[in-house]
Amino acid sequence: MMHATGTAKRLALGLGALVLLLAIASAAAIIGSARIHRGIAETMRREEGVRLSLELASAVRDQYAHQAHTIIIGDGSHLGFYAESRDTVLRLTRALRQAADRPEERSLVDRIEAESGRLDRIFRDSIVPAVLRGERQSVQEEHGRAQLVVTHIQDLTQELVSRFEAQIAQARAGADQAERRTLAVLVAILVAAPLVAAAVSLAIGRSIAVPVAQLQAGAARIAEGDLDTRIEVRGAPELVSLARRWNEMTAAVRDHQEQLVRSEKLAGIGRLAAGVAHEINNPLGVILGYAKLLRKKADGALAEDLAVVEEEALRAKHIVDGLLDLSRPLPPPSEQVDLRALAEDVVARLREARLLEGVSAEVEGEASAPGHAEKLRQVLVNLVRNAGEASGPGGRVAVRLRERDGVAELTVRDSGPGIPAAARGKMFEPFFTTKPRGTGLGLAVSRAIARAHGGELAVAAAAEGGACFALTLPTAPAAARRRAAGGAKP
Q: Which fold has domain 331-488?
């Protein structure tokens, strides 16, 4: 689950971006609709105020008209009609006060109401009594006052209408602006949404589709048997991790296959050695014995020829012995071997046999491990002798020993030309050799002995040049290791 959220994050971000655009578009549409709705509602309220203002102006004119009829007729016959018009003015004034929601508008309505009351008082308190008494002069004077009040009411009403109309225009302008702004936002989002979708698709394609295609192509090559294929993927972390695991699996399969091939090869050699080694050893022994006997009696060219026969018979016997070593299983180690003493003894014996002539050989460090001393000696003889031959006169061979983490490590380094990288993977294969007269069994037998002891023998390039062979052995017997492992389990 280390990278389990990489692709999920990409998908979530992409879909989240699209959902966010949709949410913005929806919010813009809702907000714009709300603004337009408020503008329409405000316009309707103001239009209602205009209508009421105009009706009020008309009702005031009716109120004045009934006053004029009373003056002209000269009696109280129109007082009932006047009362109705007065009630209409009061009703419209109350309705207009509810429609006016701003202080200046309410102030105008209050002034209109006050002037209407003043007009009513002039009529009831002054004009009607003067008409009934027949005082024409007084009637004319009061009628002039009433005209001035009516004119003032008309002016106030017109001002109120103008205010309502200005607010209607402002509300309509706000609604139009909200509509244009909402439309612009929606158009921008409609243009951006396909671009975002394309970018998300492209990103997902690059991070998922392309790596999947690379994985498929790599898997096809591996299915065809190319186990050296490495799948290189860039994109989603999960697919990169999958490609890395796939490469590790392929490498493990390749190594396992190589081990199986080596095991089959060794098993085949072992079966061959077990079947014919004894039969070959008998005639080789006879040939070697007669060659030595005849060599003692012969001289000159014949003695030299017999020496060659003896040498080749010994070489054939060494090959057969090597094959037998590959096929013989080793019993469990029975003694603790001092690897420092064993290495010094091997170096000393090789010097006595003049196999390290002109070569500087030194042993450093301490280590010991359970094992078969003679078999481990055979491994060291092979390693040190090969190192001496690779170094040549004037060369150096260094044997280093150390113990750490329950493992004894013995390394043999030489100052020779080293081992080509292409040959390192074949160094432990039977019959593979880089020497002109080698049998190719020494290192194969040595690795088999190391593994029979529960250890390993590996080769690497030395840091300062030459070759380096590392022998690792467990410092505890296998039974003790099993007991320790069993005791460590919860």
A: Heat Shock Protein 90 (3.30.565)
What is the maximal distance between C-alpha atoms in the chain? 191
Q: Does domain 6-200 have CATH number 1.20.120.1730?
A: yes
- For 374, counting Cβ atoms within 10 Å of its Cβ (0-12 exposed, 13-18 middle, 19+ buried), the class is exposed
Strand pairing partners for 399? 363, 412
Mind listing the pLDDT tens digit for each residue in 102-133?
888 888 888 888 988 888 888 888 888 888 88
d(CA 382, CA 372): 16
Q: Where are the domains of the chain?
A: 6-200, 236-328, 331-488
3-state secondary structure at position 184: helix
| β-pair partners for 456 | 472
Q: Which helix (H) or strand (E) holds 30?
A: helix 6-73
Residue corresponding to tokens 């202080």: 103
- Give yes or no for a contact between 180 and 55, defined as CB atoms under 8 angstroms apart: no
Q: Which top CATH class is 236-328?
A: mainly alpha
Judge whether 347 and 363 are in contact, CB under 8 Å.
yes
Q: What is the value of pTM for the model shown?
A: 0.44
Name every residue whose Cβ is closer than 8 Å to that of residue 251 and which is 6 or more positions away in sequence: none
Q: How far from each other are the two terminal CA atoms of the chain, in whole angstroms?
A: 27
Q: What is the pLDDT of residue 488?
A: 40
- Which DSSP string corresponds to 323-376? HHHHHSPPPPP-EEEEHHHHHHHHHHHHHHTTSSTT-EEEEEE--EEEE-HHHH
Q: Tens digits of per-residue pLDDT, 157-192?
A: 888 888 888 888 888 888 788 788 888 888 888 787
